[in-house]
Structures are given as C-alpha cells and as structure tokens.
C-alpha cells in the first residue's frame, strides 16, 4: 500500500506522513531530502545552482547516506533544493529511487508513506491514498520561523515569509512536476487545527481504504 502526502513547505506533511507510517508500521521517505541533498552537493562542489549539467551530475551520483546530514535542514538547503528540483534531469535521476522505495519498502514493511510535492501526481499516480496538506503561507512561515529559533538559528519572520513565497512560486510554476493537487487527493488545511486533529483527518481516508481492501479480499 502506498500513501502519497504532498503539500507546500511547513504545511505539516512531514509530521503527518511520519505519524501515519508509524501507526501502520509502514516505511517512510521524506523526498524533500533527495532534492536538498542534490542542492547541498552542488554547493559543496563549488558549482552554480543554475548549472543544470552540474546538478544532474550531482543527482546521478547521489548517495542516500547524505540524507542524514543535518545541513540539509538549513534554509540555504531549502532554497537550493527548490532550484535544482526544477531541472528535469535531476527529477528523472530521483524517480527510480522513489518508485523502488514505494514498491519494495525497506525492512520488509507492508507499505510506504512518501511526502513531497509530486508523489500523488507523478511518482505514484496510482497511490492507494493521496493527501494534500496545506495551510496559509503566514501560518507556515510562522511555523518555520519558530522551528529555526528553536534550533538556535537566527531568524527574521518577514524574511522566512518572503523566501517561502518565492519557493512556493517556484515549486508551483516549474514546467516539470509542478506542485499541484491531484484530482483524487483529500485536501487537509492545517492552518487552524493542531497536529492531533490533522492526524485524525489524515487517517480517515487511509483507514477507509484499508477496510475496503480487506472487504474485497
Ligand atoms: N497542525 C499543526 N499545527 C501546528 N503546528 C504544526 C502542525 N503540523 C505541523 N506543525 C509544526 O510545523 C512545523 C513544520 O511541520 P513539518 O511537518 O515539518 O512540515 P513540512 O514537512 O510540510 O515542511 C513543525 O515544527 C511541526 O511541528
Ligand atoms: N517530491 C518533492 C519534494 C521536494 N521538492 C523540492 O524540494 C524542496 C524542499 O522540499 P522539502 O519537502 O524538504 O521542504 P519543506 O516542505 O520541508 O520546507 C521543495 O521546495 C521542492 O522544490 C520537490 O520538488 N519534489
């Protein structure tokens, strides 16, 4: 079973995807880390983020061990990720890894939850359940700002808001795999609900799908 969780930055999709995976004992993949990893690798090599060939080379040489690097959580990595993520060759290089993860989840798990921007539209258009998590950009910027301060990283709300608006715009308008809501996705707006309420809303279609699959068998 594959659960696709998409949505913009700081909408809460990672928190929900992790909780759904843990509740069902499924494998979890944060696909943003793939693009963050490529962005950081390009910067580490001293290449320009506008150099498509350099980004594609970094994507083809991608080492999944890099996904544990704490530098991937920086705002510099967020912005670098959304630049390299617009390059078709970078996305093509990441496709197989994600599909393999979903079809044969590590640890022999019976299913996988993946979060990102194009999981329900491009990576797994046939996903069993598709969730699109959203929230107002002001709420999302506030969450990210608090997260940065909580980690001891200096942060200015107005700047986080501006960078998030720029990133949303880039992610929505790119020609390859833009962030869009799949026609069969369940949309959850977390602007005014807490994590627990969002989790209940997210689990409803998942549990319904599981019970329908059991009835068919
Ligand atoms: N429903 C919610 N209400 C309030 N805060 C939330 C909610 N969901 C997530 N958060 C918080 O917002 C921040 C971003 O959440 P995260 O799941 O990392 O978002 P994303 O994966 O979409 O970038 C985290 O600090 C998280 O604890
Ligand atoms: N499936 C995905 C996941 C992330 N991304 C890109 O990677 C960037 C970082 O994604 P992320 O999910 O780690 O970012 P946050 O939502 O956690 O801020 C996004 O802004 C997208 O440009 C993507 O294009 N496709």
Keywords for this entry:
single chain, Rossmann fold, 5-stranded parallel sheet, 9 helices, 5 strands, 54% helix, binds adenosine-5'-diphosphate, binds cytidine-5'-diphosphate
> In the residues, how many domains can be counted?
1
Per CATH, the superfamily is P-loop containing nucleotide triphosphate hydrolases
Distance between the termini: 14 Å
- Mean pLDDT across the residues is 97
- Major beta sheet, strand line-up: 2-3-1-4-5
Task: Write a brief structural summary.
The chain has 217 residues and is an alpha/beta fold.
Task: Explain this structure.
The chain is an alpha/beta fold. It has one domain (2-211): Rossmann fold (3-Layer(aba) Sandwich), CATH 3.40.50.300. Helices cover 54% and strands 11% of the residues. The protein contains nine helices and five strands; from the N terminus they run E-H-E-H-H-H-H-E-H-E-H-H-E-H. The protein has helices at 13-24, 32-44, 52-60, 75-84, 88-103, 119-123, 137-150, 157-173, 195-216, and strands spanning 2-6, 27-30, 112-116, 129-134, 186-189. Strands 2-3-1-4-5 form a five-stranded parallel β-sheet, sandwiched between helices. Helix 2 (32-44) crosses helix 4 and helix 3 (52-60) packs parallel to helix 5 (88-103). The longest helix is centred in the last third of the chain and has 22 residues, at 195-216. The chain is globular. Residues 7, 9-15, 143, 147, 190, 193-195, 198 line the site of adenosine-5'-diphosphate. This is Cytidylate kinase. Belongs to the cytidylate kinase family. Type 1 subfamily. It catalyses: CMP + ATP = CDP + ADP; dCMP + ATP = dCDP + ADP. It comes from Oceanibaculum pacificum.
């Amino acid at each position: 079973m594959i659960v696709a969780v998409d949505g913009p930055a700081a909408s809460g999709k990672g928190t929900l995807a992790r909780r759904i995976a843990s509740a069902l004992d499924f494998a979890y993949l944060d696909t943003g880390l793939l693009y963050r990893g490529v962005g950081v690798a390009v910067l580490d090599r001293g290449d320009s983020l506008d150099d498509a060939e350099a980004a594609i080379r970094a994507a083809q040489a991608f080492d999944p061990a890099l996904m544990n690097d704490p530098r991937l959580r920086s705002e510099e990595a967020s912005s670098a990720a959304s630049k390299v993520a617009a390059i078709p060759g970078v996305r093509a290089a990441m496709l197989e890894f994600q599909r393999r993860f979903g079809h044969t989840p590590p640890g022999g798990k019976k299913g996988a939850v993946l979060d990102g921007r194009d999981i329900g539209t491009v990576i797994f258009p046939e996903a069993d359940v598709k969730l699109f998590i959203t929230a107002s950009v002001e709420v999302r910027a506030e969450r990210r700002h608090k997260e940065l301060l909580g980690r001891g990283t200096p942060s200015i709300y107005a700047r986080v808001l501006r960078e998030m608006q720029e990133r949303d715009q880039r992610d929505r308008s790119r020609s390859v795999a833009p962030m869009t809501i799949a026609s069969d996705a369940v949309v959850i707006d977390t602007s005014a609900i807490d994590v627990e309420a969002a989790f209940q809303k997210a689990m409803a279609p998942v549990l319904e799908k599981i019970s329908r699959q059991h009835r068919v068998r």
